[in-house]
């Protein structure tokens, strides 16, 4: 997601459109990116650290964006799912 | 996120670049959008249903995209935070 101090024209456009579309009471909208990575093998601390580094280096532009890494178990598959939002 | 059966060229481009950048063992990358909505008042079932409808109608293109709605408490502010990912 864009850092709070960075202007987000896409999010603002959505927010301004909402009352017109019948949706009141939404005080802020921010738009960002989301990556789902599927990993081979277990999502242990080492794998997670690597994904964090990857997110920081290549997926997010940390000058203007924050990111969080979240693990999601992927039921029905061997590979676990990992979600990075930038 | 794009539905699993929909081709995701952005995610594929990221995935193909990773080994070159020194990241092995990532079997799939999908890229999608993420919206953070801030709501006035409590995030009760009614508010959540409204946000789901909003996501389905305006934020996501449900022909090609799935979405999930997740509630995030926003510590330090009165308004609770709501995350929609498309």
TrEMBL record, chains A, B:
<keyword id="KW-0067">ATP-binding</keyword>
<dbReference type="Pfam" id="PF02700">
    <property type="entry name" value="PurS"/>
</dbReference>
<keyword id="KW-0658">Purine biosynthesis</keyword>
<comment type="subunit">
    <text>Part of the FGAM synthase complex composed of 1 PurL, 1 PurQ and 2 PurS subunits.</text>
</comment>
<keyword id="KW-0963">Cytoplasm</keyword>
<keyword id="KW-0547">Nucleotide-binding</keyword>
<dbReference type="InterPro" id="IPR036604">
    <property type="entry name" value="PurS-like_sf"/>
</dbReference>
<protein>
    <recommendedName>
        <fullName>Phosphoribosylformylglycinamidine synthase subunit PurS</fullName>
        <ecNumber>6.3.5.3</ecNumber>
    </recommendedName>
</protein>
<comment type="similarity">
    <text>Belongs to the PurS family.</text>
</comment>
<keyword id="KW-0436">Ligase</keyword>
<comment type="function">
    <text>Part of the phosphoribosylformylglycinamidine synthase complex involved in the purines biosynthetic pathway. Catalyzes the ATP-dependent conversion of formylglycinamide ribonucleotide (FGAR) and glutamine to yield formylglycinamidine ribonucleotide (FGAM) and glutamate. The FGAM synthase complex is composed of three subunits. PurQ produces an ammonia molecule by converting glutamine to glutamate. PurL transfers the ammonia molecule to FGAR to form FGAM in an ATP-dependent manner.</text>
</comment>
<comment type="pathway">
    <text>Purine metabolism; IMP biosynthesis via de novo pathway; 5-amino-1-(5-phospho-D-ribosyl)imidazole from N(2)-formyl-N(1)-(5-phospho-D-ribosyl)glycinamide: step 1/2.</text>
</comment>
<dbReference type="InterPro" id="IPR003850">
    <property type="entry name" value="PurS"/>
</dbReference>
